[in-house]
Design a protein that fits this description.
456 residues, alpha/beta, Rossmann fold, 2 domains, ten-stranded mixed sheet, six-stranded parallel sheet, 17 helices, binds adenosine-5'-diphosphate-glucose
Length: 456
Amino acid sequence: MSRLIAVSNRVAAPSGGKSAGGLAVGILAALKQSGGIWFGWGGKTCHGEPTEPKLDRHGEITFATIDINETEFDGYYNGYCNSTLWPLCHYMLGIFGYEREQHEAYRRVNETFARKLRPLLQEDDRIWVHDYHLIPLAEELRSAGVRQPIGFFLHVPFPAFDILRTLPGYHRLLRSLAQYDVIGFQTEQDCENFLAGLRAAGLGGERGPDGRVSALQRRIRVDAYPISIDVEEAMTQAAASMKTSAVQRLAKDIDERELVIGVDRLDYSKGLPERFQAFQALLERHPASHRHLVFLQIASPTRSGVRAYEEIRHVLEQSAGHINGRFSQPDWTPIRYINRGISRKMLMGYFRLAKIGLVTPLRDGMNLVAKEYVAAQDPADPGVLVLSRLAGAAAEFGESALLVNPYDAIGVADAILTASEMSLEERQDRYRAMMDVLQGNDIHAWRQRFLDALGV
Ligand code: ADQ
């Protein structure tokens, strides 16, 4: 079996007892199976040249991390990655911006990744690159003489051509992608968008009889590999977490009321202001829901170096304050807004306690919270998932979730009400249908399908 080299912008440090997020679980399990290296940025910036990889070996897995120059990192990460590509891929052209210097920093950081990774590679390695931060990495590795198979998985949506062409130099992005041997997207729609982009740019994009796609005289495997979660772990953790004092305290406090939960990174693509508006619409239109529902929103701050993220934080604080000021009663506050991350174990317990999971991104590659919420439910008395049609997860769960358009406040409000009134039988039917999806495609199946395609 050949060695796997996983590359992502950020390397998750070997977990010291703390459970890792979905992507880290997938990558770590893959690396355990075949042995190999996880290469990427270690979380520190430096002032001069990027450092040589720091190698930290744990059994068959070597964590190889580099420090990147601070100014360069700012242009690459806060700039091109998170102010250009992220809004573009999430169809947020109002937030999208482009600066040529940032684009150049992005290219240079990718070149640095390739230069630092190259000496660590062996002849029969297979390389698996993750996400929009590293689209040009295969091209850089190829020009450094790397001939090993290289796969790429895009965690975010791939935009329709009319959105893609907003990006100066989108041609180059497509050309860079064409240097991979396997390209994985979250959904069929993302695959279609990519192929349509190749065709519109005159770079190929036709599927041959063997299913491979032609692009720039190369033949590439392009498929949907919807990412998933460790379903067994989520189920076990959720059940165990119910016994913890934190979850029991919340249960006691909620009492006869119903808990509605939202858990997200504090990101404008997650539709949080719109979700708060929807909850407000519910309170306005259905006074009977007052005192009966409590909405707990947990939002962990991210990307604080990007202005749009600072802004959304203020918008949400104001909105929660406004709604609570208007509707609260001495013994009931409609929205509980927590602006930080919480432990995974506690999260799973909160999910299980919540009768309604509110997952309403304006656009999302997949959305693992939707999957975690379902897996965490008590099979005997499961809650209901209210899910945005614009999340990748909707393509898998379909109408087993209550699908909504996140921009339609009244539509979301009605769905919350429907969820809250749903019979046990219907909740169980929907839960079982969604669990079938999850058990048919957990994080291990996802990883295995991709690695089979890459030939690891
Ligand atoms: P994200 O945009 O980060 O991921 P998501 O898929 O929901 O979105 O994953 C977030 C993870 O962080 C989940 O495991 C969640 O439980 C955890 N999390 C979020 N907020 C938290 C909080 N406040 N406290 C504790 N934990 C929290 C990107 C893409 C997604 C895609 C994933 C994986 O944007 O579309 O599903 O990658 O490919």
